[in-house]
Design brief:
76% of the residues lie in helices and 0% in strands.
Length: 72
């Protein structure tokens, strides 16, 4: 899985729900950690991107919940 494939799937409206999108995004990180060794620059870049994605995605969900009145 890669970002261009995810974008193409988004453009074609192939994601039925958020979970399908998240599964593909998280597959990118799993692939990174499978094919690179801890300590490699690509491993570190994958960790940073994963951390940033998860933080931004969480904030987006909080923002959407606030806008729709679904806050806990």
């Amino acid at each position: 899985m890669d970002l261009s494939t995810i974008k193409a799937k988004m453009d074609r409206k192939e994601y039925a729900n958020e979970d399908e999108f998240l599964r593909d995004i998280r597959q990118i990180f799993e692939n990174c950690f499978t094919y690179w060794k801890e300590g490699d620059p690509m491993w570190a870049a994958g960790e940073r991107l994963q951390k940033t994605f998860e933080e931004k995605f969480l904030q987006m969900n909080k923002w959407v919940a606030k806008m729709t009145g679904d806050e806990d």
